[in-house]
Amino acid sequence: MAHRVISLKYRPQNFDELTGQNHVVVSLKGAIKSGRIGHAFLFAGPRGVGKTTTARILAKSLNCIEGSTVHPCQQCPSCREITLSRSIDVVEIDGASNRGIEEIRNLRESVKYSPIHGRYKIYIIDEVHMLTQEAFNALLKTLEEPPPKVIFIFATTNPTKVPATILSRCQRFIFKRLSVKEITTRLRVIAEKENIKLTNDALHYIATRADGSIRDGESIVEQLAAFVEGEITADDVFKLIGFLGSNFYLALIDKILAQNLAQVISGLNNGLEDGADPIEIYRGLTNYLRAALLLKTGLSEEFIELNTEEINRLKALPLDKEGLISMLEICLHFEEMIRRSVNVRIAIELLLSQLVLNMPHSQEQKSKNDSDARASLDTSDLKRKIFDPLQKKSPKLAGIVQKSTIAEDAHNVIITVEDEFSEKQLIDNHRIIESIVKEKINPNHSLIIQRTRKTKQVNGFVDAIKTLFDGEEVR
After folding, report:
1. Between 182 and which of 149, 178, 402, 422 could a Cys-Cys bridge form, CB atoms 3.0 to 4.6 Å apart?
2. What is the pLDDT of residues 351-401, one digit of tens each?
3. Model's pTM, two decimal places?
4. In this structure, what CATH number is given to the domain that contains residue 224?
5. Within-domain flag for 441
6. Are 257 and 319 in contact (CB under 8 A)?
């Protein structure tokens, strides 16, 4: 018997076998049970998540000899023909290779004929967004008023390219990416049936590499089973498909944190020598930084889709949310350059260099900067408490205070000015200013007015005259 690839051998044949698309299944089952079958459906979603498979199952349910049912018998001629892609009443069309107006004209002629065996004549058009604008226009009238017993099912990975006039005439179903957990569960069942032994880590990394597509995961399992004797491990996954695991990315992040550019570039080179694509390295790095940020925000670990060891290592990174956001911003600024660069490797090296050179400060330095910032805010607040009430009494004095340096110790508020004129003005009004200090800052504080040794060499006299007359700060 000829070998059948896993993705075809274990292709779901009824609604209950579909993985991860319960919202679509429930809706379609309800339509079949109630007899409310639309004449056009649009199945949109990423690759390998079950769009065409669901279209076939829907066709079986509608054309099964037992009547429209959510549990097709799989035994009648109609069910068997659809399973083998030989049904005369279920026509599958590749939108990419039949995208012109002539092909759609032929389709319009064929829809005039009634189904031969089944109740409905069903047209499944894959990648419908590849049709030309003229082809869509030719299809529009037929889609709006199709002949009785004709159903269109469109599948696409890019619904934004389907004209609104087509979309408005279809019942839309959005297929979601499958989670790592859903893919892992499905692959484990298949591996047991095929007597393929995989470690839990290997399954996890295969599901991660599948990137939401169950078909991609099945293809990777089959590839590994053909080349690995015995149990398949995580190392086998890394070697065969050029996929880098968490150890590579977490080690790379550690080297970036250590600000050791030579080791960072050396680590990148090791990853490239292991067969990883530079763009894949970029995506992996940003995904792990994103995961670390989400963990720092307290998000549920189930949402992160990493194993326990990876989560614990990301939690242990000596970076706060601000540091991770800064690193992610740098990565995203390089995304366009990396995507368009002729030499992607140089672009990745430049990105890593920027991450090293722009590493967030250490926690100790950050604490010092925060302390300095608080001190600056405190000083500004101290000045405001004196300036605001003084502005009402004497704009001239308020202008002098605004230009001064103000500090506070345990018993005093100290105003430091730079010129003799300002010092004299404040001393002459010492009582007014001190009353504000006691009222607004601390009733037990005294006021000290002093002058710095440094004086302005230029424009000092002009500044003094301007302050004397209008109390404004000289900019």
Report:
1. 178
2. 999 999 887 544 444 555 555 444 444 456 788 888 888 887 888 888 888
3. 0.69
4. 1.10.8.60
5. yes
6. yes
